[in-house]
Design goal:
The complex is a heterodimer. By secondary structure, chain A is of the alpha/beta class. Chain A has helices at about 10-15, 15-30, 45-50, 55-65, 75-85, 95-100, 105-115, 135-140, 155-160, 185, 190-205, 215-225, 235-240; strands at about 1-5, 30-35, 70-75, 105, 125-130, 165, 210, 235. Helices cover about 50% and strands about 10% of the residues of chain A. In chain A, helix 5 (about 75-85) packs antiparallel against helix 6. Classes of the chains: A alpha/beta, B alpha/beta.
């Protein structure tokens, strides 16, 4: 099984350690991983701003980069969801369709495709799990508090295998952090207020780390934590699964 | 209060100047959302009910013309006078003409978001008609000379102390008394005189039944009944999408409405109106006001399924932290943001962007409107129709250029990180909205792409 590693642009540029952890976790799971070096961005920032019609060239590049693999795996629910919903290429629509139906967020790839049942990792800390809305409500990585339905959580299933990890229960388990792409600057005041409230929920439960599957939410909350001079740090779930 | 030409982000920033108040607003509405969750989780068939309601409304929207004609015919047979209004102006004129014909200059009105949408109160006041809103929340915002900030909880933005002051000023209650029970009673006494003396009563309509020509008005205060039963003339106004085909469909919608809205099993009063009592005139005004245009927009027609429960507002993390007035339209929140651009794209071009697209709204919607997907689609429409700010257009073109060229992307990334490292003041300043209340990420020495090149073999 050969997997193409799709690294979101902001992780590539600002959080290379998350990409390295993702690569190593996938290799530890026994899959062959290839990183197409000419990848850039999925085009979501433009599309969510109303400029989906400008994303054609990004899409073509994406299809070129990610054609020819069994699966495409990405350490971001948000970018994965965008590709799943919006990747089209008139010239290569068959390839685009293959990618749309074979792109996976990291944790769902591990639980659904690799079907990991045990995992060797250790992270002896108290953490709060931040679920990204696109991962949770978009990709349905875990059950949503609004629905009357059976609870489940793909990331939690993995995190329960990590030795020493204690996950706190939040007051509002799936409230949005307020990052929202360009929303974080166009609606700065609401975005920050949402972020502060989300961070407070974790802090009030005494966490040492806020962890999550989307670095964009975590980047936003990290910015708030650091401005508050808090000692609490953010970590991507790939880094937790790669800890010993 | 004129709120045209306003921008959600600016109004929301003003709302956020008082953080303790934002916390209070957020927690108050979250409490309502929690009550909704509790009520929904008490019904194992909840998701099935939502699906059935959505399908019934789907059928209604697909056959609206026939159901409307059927409703009109049945209502007429019941002795109700039916009027058709193409837009807000026509609606207001019909209402005024009915009052004028009957020589009525003072009326009571129960809650109706349609009349808010049509700005009926200000129109009637210009014609010399005095309107008294009889829903307590509506009465409070009316005394404050403000529009409602929420479709179910019109004065949710006001604290009880502010209501005490308002009542002291307008109703003569003792200064400093803000006991909710006392204030509600004071309002009741004041309204009683209006109910007894006003000869015309207006109500909204929650559901209009095509097969019988009946309509149902849901309130918790009984104020719609009080008005309608005491008045010589009852005028009920409804948007044309309020139709349900059969009476037994109410068993689906009445179960969903109050649970979604406030967590109650049902509204205290679900009043069924069929025909005027002897000597009474009963009118129904069927209003289009952009609805048939919305019906013709394939991507957005589902928004007409809305039963005005307000659940999407209560759950919306943006609404809770920006307040209803920041949406500068009669219907605030997520549903308002997908309805308003249909009426005026220029005026409401900001609203579909007042969202993180978190999707919680679509999950609580009792008729399963794909609200957050429609917000995304409205963004595409608004940009294509030319309502994007010039600076944003430029930024997006620049971004597209860079992100579709691997070399340019890698260079820009490296240059950006170098600047952030060596000259942080270029990004860490007040021109950068991110930096105002957040630190920028610390730029690493190398990108993952660079690390990979050094540490792993080329593909």
């Amino acid at each position: 099984m050969t997997v193409a590693l799709f690294i979101p642009c902001y992780i590539d540029q600002f959080y290379p350690q998350v990409a390295i952890a993702t690569l190593q976790v996938l290799e530890k799971a026994g899959v062959t991983v290839v990183y197409p070096p000419k990848q850039t961005c999925c085009g979501q920032p433009m599309a969510n701003s109303g400029f989906e019609h400008l994303t054609g060239s990004c899409n073509e590049l994406f299809v070129k980069n990610f054609t020819g693999f069994d699966y495409i795996v990405c350490p971001s629910g948000s970018c994965t969801l965008h590709v799943k919903q919006h990747l089209h290429d008139a010239e290569n629509e068959k390839e685009a369709e293959f990618i749309r139906t074979h792109v996976y967020e990291l944790t769902e790839f591990l639980t659904d495709i690799v079907q990991v049942e045990q995992w060797d990792a250790r992270f002896p800390h108290k953490v709060g799990m931040h679920q990204s809305c696109h991962g949770q409500r978009g990709l349905k990585l875990s059950q949503m508090s609004e629905l009357v339905a059976e609870p489940f959580s793909k990331p939690d299933k993995l995190l329960k295998m990590v030795e020493g990890l204690e996950i706190v229960e939040l007051s509002r388990p799936d409230e949005c952090c307020g990052f929202g792409g360009t929303f974080c600057v166009t609606e700065e005041s609401v975005s920050v207020k949402m972020g502060k409230d989300r961070v407070d929920d974790h802090l009030n439960h005494g966490v040492e780390y806020i962890i999550g599957g989307d670095m964009s939410c975590l980047m936003h909350m990290e910015g708030i934590l650091r401005r508050q001079k808090s000692k609490v740090q953010v970590k991507h779930i790939a880094e937790i699964l790669n800890s010993h | 209060m004129d709120q045209s030409n306003k921008d959600h982000a600016l109004l929301a920033a003003q709302f956020n100047e008082d953080e303790p108040r934002v916390n209070w607003h957020d927690e108050t509405l979250w409490w309502v959302r929690s009550k909704r969750d509790k009520a929904a989780h008490a019904l194992p068939e909840w998701e099935q009910l939502r699906e059935v309601a959505s399908q019934i409304k789907h059928n209604v929207l697909s056959n609206l013309n026939e159901y409307l004609l059927q409703f009109e015919e049945k209502a007429r047979a019941n002795g109700v006078i039916v009027h058709w209004a193409a837009d807000a102006k026509e609606h207001n004129e019909i209402v005024y003409a009915l009052l004028h014909q009957n020589g009525i200059s003072r009326i009571v009105k129960s809650k109706s978001m349609l009349t808010e949408e049509c700005h009926l109160n200000s129109y009637l006041e210009q014609q010399g008609i005095e309107v008294t809103d009889t829903d307590l929340g509506e009465r409070i915002v009316q005394l404050a000379n403000e529009p409602p900030s929420h479709i179910v909880l019109p004065c949710i933005h006001k604290k009880k102390e502010e209501i005490g002051e308002l009542f002291h000023e307008h109703l003569g209650t003792p200064a400093g008394n803000s006991d909710p029970k006392f204030l509600a009673n004071a309002a009741r006494l004041n309204l009683r005189e209006k109910f007894l003396t006003r000869r015309a009563a207006m109500t909204g309509v929650n559901f209009a039944i095509a097969e019988t020509g009946e309509f149902v008005v849901c309130t918790n205060e009984g104020n719609a009944d009080m008005g309608a039963h005491l008045a010589d003339v009852h005028i009920a106004c409804m948007g044309i999408e309020k139709i349900v085909p059969q009476r037994n469909h109410l068993s689906v919608f009445l179960r969903l409405l109050a649970r979604s809205a406030t967590g109650q099993p049902i509204t205290t009063y679900s009043s069924h109106f069929k025909k005027p009592r002897k000597g009474q005139e009963m009118h129904i005004v069927l209003v289009d006001n952009g609805r048939s245009v919305q019906l013709g927009r394939a991507d957005f027609r589902n928004a007409l399924k809305c039963i005005r429960c307000g659940a999407c507002m209560n759950t919306c993390p943006v609404y809770r932290r920006s307040g209803g007035h920041s949406y500068h339209t009669a219907i605030a929140g997520p549903i308002g943001s997908i309805l308003a651009p249909n009426l005026d794209m220029r005026k409401y071009a900001d609203l579909p962007f007042a969202s993180t697209l978190c999707g919680s709204c679509s999950n609580v919607c009792p008729v399963k409107i794909d609200i957050h997907d429609q917000l995304y689609k409205w963004r595409q429409v608004l940009v294509k129709e030319g309502y994007a700010p010039a600076a944003k257009k430029m930024a997006m073109r620049g971004m597209t250029f860079t992100l579709s060229r691997p070399g340019a992307y890698q260079f820009a990334g490296k240059a950006g990180r170098w600047v952030m490292d060596k000259m942080p003041f270029i990004v860490n300043n007040k021109l950068n909205p991110w930096y105002k209340q957040r630190e920028m990420p610390e730029p690493p020495k190398q990108s993952f792409g660079e690390w990979y090149k050094k540490n792993r073999k080329e593909v």
